[in-house]
Each structure stands twice: as C-alpha cells, then as structure tokens.
Design a protein that fits this description.
6-stranded mixed sheet, alpha/beta, 6-stranded mixed beta barrel
Length: 654
Amino acid sequence: MKLRPMLELRGASRRHGDFDSGVQALQATDLTLHAGTLVAITGPSGSGKSTLLNLLGLLDTPSAGSYRVAGHHTDNLDAEALALLRREYFGFVFQRYQLLPHLSALENVELPASYAGVDAQQRRRQALAMLERVGLAHRARHRPAALSGGEQQRVALARALVNGAPVLLADEPTGALDRAAGRALMDLLLELQMAGRTIVVVTHDPAVAAYAERVIEMQDGRIVADRSQRRSAHLAPAGAIRSARPVRRRRVQRTLRERVLELARMALPALAGHPLRTALTMLGVIIGTASVVGIDAIGAGAQEHIRQTVGALAGRQIEVRRGHDWGDPKAASVHTLAQPDFDLLSGLDYLDAVSPLTETAVRLRRGRFDEAATVNSVGTDFLRARGIGLADGRNLMPLDVEGAERVALIDQASRRRLFEIWEEPVGATLLVGKVPFVIVGVTDARTQDQFSSRGLNVVVPYTTGAAVLSGRPWFDTIVARLRPGVGNRLAETAITRQLLISHGSQDFFTHNLDTVAETVARTTQTTSLMLSLIGAIALLVGGIGVMNIMLVSVVERTREIGVRLAVGGHPGDILAQFLSEAILVCTLGGGAGVVLAFGMAPLLSHFVQDWNMSFTLAAVLKALLVAVLTGLAFGWLPAWRASRLPPVQALAAL
C-alpha cells in the first residue's frame, strides 16, 4: 500500500521582488517527504535552505508551483487558513531560540496551545509535561534571560511539541550551542523521529546531518543532491522521550468572558515588560480622562451650589430697583422708591414677604478690630424674603423697626473677623460707623451668598439706618418673595402695573432672580461644555499618542509577531492581542485619570470653600467608556498593521 506523502512540493519556486530586479531564492523544486522521517537540508549560505524550510512550514508561499500538507492543497489559501494548517501540523525550532523575553519558560511553552484553543488548565498541564520531558520542569518559572543557551533551546523544542505537531522544522538548531548541548538536542530530535514525527533540519554541520536518514543538498536555489544514508550505531536514541506522541487536544467553546480574560493575560505581560513605555503611553489618557471627569464634577458642583443658594428661592423672588435698568446713570437721583411703595407691596396677597433694602458702606469697629462692611437697612421680613437663615440669636422684630432701635444682625464673615472663636457675639456691642449697635443675631453660613455684598454684612432696621447711617428716607431696593404656586412672570407684571399707577411713570425696574438663575445655569453649562471639549481634546491627543507608540511597538516587536505567527497564531489573534493591549492601556489610564480627578477635589476645596466638586457615577462610567473607545479607535491601525505582517518577513527582522 502506497503511503500518502506528509509534505509534497511540485514545481515550487520563490522569487523575492519584481521580475526585473528580484532575486530567485528557490528554483522550480519537486520534493516529497513521508511521515516519520528525519531529513537534513544542507548547502552553503544563500543556497535556498531557509527559503525551502519557510515554504514547507507555510511561513511563506510559493511564487509558482503547488504545495500539499497531508494531502491538503495550500494553493490560494488565505492567511487564516494557512495559519490553521501551520498550527495543526507544524512545530518550529529556531536557531536563536526566539523565546519571548517577557514570558516565563512555562508561558512560552503554553503559547501555541493558547492559540489552539486549549483551556487554561489543560494547556498548563500540557506545557509542564513537555518541560518535564525535556528535563526543564524545575526551570518552568524562569524567564529566558535566566536560562542557558541549551536550556533555551530545549524550551523552544518543548514549545514546538506542545500542540502535538506531526512535523518538526528546525533551522540550524545547534548553531548557537556547544558540541555537548548540540548532541543532546539532536538525540532528542532523533527520539522524536523514532516516536513517529517528521523532522526536517536545516544545517551546515555534517555532524548534525549524520543523524538524518535522508540528506538533501542545495545550491543556487536548487536541489542538487538527494540521498539516503544509514545512521551510525552510536547515534541510537537514549529513550528519554520515546513515549512522546502528538497531544490530542480537547477543544472548548470559550465564553466572551474567557476570551477577554485570555487576551488580558496575554496583554499584561507585554505591557509589564516595558513599564516606562506603558506609563508614557498612558499619560495622555490619564490627563484627558482626569480633565473630563474633573471638569464634569466642577460643573456639577457649581450647578448644585447654584441650586442650593439660588435655585429654590430664585423662582419666587422679585426685586424692585431704582432707575430704568442696570447701569442707569440717573438712578441715584430717583427718590420715589419709598415707604408708600413698601406699604403697597406688603398689602398684595400673592407676596409672602416684602422688605425694603438700602445698602450703605461703613466701618465696623470692635476693640482692636476695624473692618469695612456693608450695612443692609431692612424690614423684619428681609431674611425670609432673601431666604437667609439664622445660626444664633433672633431676627429683627416689629418693635425694633417702629422704635428705630440700634440692634443688628451680623453674618458669619463678620463673626470670624470681629470675634475670637471662643467669644459669644450675641449681646455684644458693635460700632457701626460711629454708632453703637447691640448684636441680637448671627446669620448662618449656608445662606451667606444671599447677601448682595461679598464682604462683611450687617443687618439693621431700615428706620434706624435712615436715621443714623444713610440719612435717606428712600430705598435702593424692595425685595419680595412670592407665595408658593404664584407664577413669577405674572407676579412681576402685576407688581410693575401697581407701581406705575403709584408713581405715574416708570422710574424703576423689576429684577427676577429666576432669570439670573437661568442665566447662571446656562453660563455654567456652556463653560462646562467648553472645558469638557478641552478635556476631550486632551483625550484625543492621548489617543494619538497611544497610536503612535503602538505603531512604534509594532516595529519593535516584529520579531515577537513573527514568533507568534510561527507557533500557531493567526492574523486575527495578532489583531486581537495588539488591540487588547491598546484598550488595556487606555482602560488603565482611564482608571488612573478617574483617581486623579478624585484627588483634585481636596486641592480645589482648599482654594474654593463655597462649593465642592460633585462626582457622579454616570460621569465616571462615561469617562471610562470614552477611554476604552479611545483605545479601540486609536489602537486599530497599529493592531491591523501588526496582523498584516507576513510571517516570513516578520521572522526575517529577527
């Protein structure tokens, strides 16, 4: 019975470059190799040995002719199909070992099994068994740099065997070994051949060729001799791994979670192997994500502050001021906003609280303290109309207004500046200008912003203020608060109509704080949007940095890509790996950026005490999602370029 050839070339040739200036590396070649043989390919440098080996191992494809692997036609197969055949039928032992330096010996051996879809536990057992067969189980956790040349070559052999490939291709496997290590390796190859594997060795060493049953000699891209030979008796195998057989793999259907974890396991060592480059790659993403999250938190905090200080009150507060509008130069000469207007508005049933307001700049003195302040001459409903709370003491009473009593309320800023921390302000005497006042209450800090002045504020009865401070019987402003359920626009129109009837002309204007709140909210949103765009630009720059560094990484790791393709990876695996690295870098950078944004909050609160950054889960998740999408978008081109590298070209860059 005639056996089907394991490998069969018919008229195969390989030309590099174009027809005019290219190099014919391999002439039309016929070659048939049967299973279970050990074949040596010899010849001088440049004779086509490595080109023939690359064609046999599907690392390269013929320019002309045909090639079959175990009866499978390889003509016109795409990269994915070639990768599948390469993974199922071939194991490679390279001259310079070509172990990945950031992986341990065990992880290097596992690599082909991971591409073959073997589950993690099974491939770990499989790899350990192979390391034990080559006598290196005790060195499984060591990285290549910690292994001798002979040990590295044995790890490379274990890697070639882990998937149970029936064909083993070795390119100058003893070229970097001393005589003893080289003999040990050839003994192992001979034992594998005796166990049923097909071994093809490229060598220029006659001692290595002596192990082969068949020697093929090449010159100028042609086979010039093909002879069988009898091995010497002293080359008989020692039986160390005589039981080695192709491993039968149990395929499993991986879930999405298992695939993601597998990609992460492959990406993490590659990133950890270049910590500085990884950190620099992440830097732009960290800054961009921190900017996006931080700016969102600042905007949310500002809006929350507006809602707390103005929002609930703004829709129910209306002010009447002198003049025709803001900045009216004639406003100071308008004296018609007076007691009759206050009495008129106090009688409107849709107003919940009404108070006059006259502001006067004065000096506050108490003991050694002397501070500039604003006196607010008001009625008893001023605190209610403005929404100002009391922290201590009492509010102004009707008797205080009727009797023009010299009593005052101070705000928290005045308390801090005029009193020691242990002193009780209520009941103390304070000089307002040159007039002594008795402090009867202290407003709370939460509603400090409801005062018009940003500095120190004192509240006194408006009758007292007119009599001893300002000397003006008219008011700057009348503050009114609407009852719940009353429309602010309608109320504003009604107030204007009432005062027009009273004054006979419009020498006043109304100011609806709801409009202010809306304007501030729109301004805050616009500012937040602009700042978010700046953060997005920072993230875009970070993404471009990721792409640039990943492109450089592809060039630097061409050797690694070639090795991964040779040991069983297909273009989709390479694409997924490099893409997962970019996504992982951006995800880690996004996480670090979120942490940095949270770290900004205490720093900001040190400079801005009125409000805090407000972080939301939605903003954090949005930033992380954007970081992941950045990795996906900007990692695609480098990953695609890596996946398109032909195996033979990638290995040629070694």
